[in-house]
């Protein structure tokens, strides 16, 4: 784990190893007990394609599955 400190102007500098690994842009997500930095891909569309490359269902099949699951959950 790495540690970083804010400077007198409120800037946070990440260690070089982290910047090289994850890039220079991040979303800041506020959690109940802290914050999380989520790297932003250089090309978000390519990142989505990579993330879902192994999904074999169509968008409509995924939607229908979500609908069915919601109906099952509501019926309990």
Automatic annotation (TrEMBL):
Molecular function per GO: DNA binding
InterPro entries reported for this sequence: SpoVT-AbrB_dom (IPR007159), SpoVT-AbrB_sf (IPR037914)
Segments forming domain SpoVT-AbrB: 4-45
Highest taxon above the source species: Archaea
SUPFAM superfamilies: AbrB/MazE/MraZ-like
Protein name: SpoVT-AbrB domain-containing protein
Taxonomic source organism: Haloarcula hispanica N601
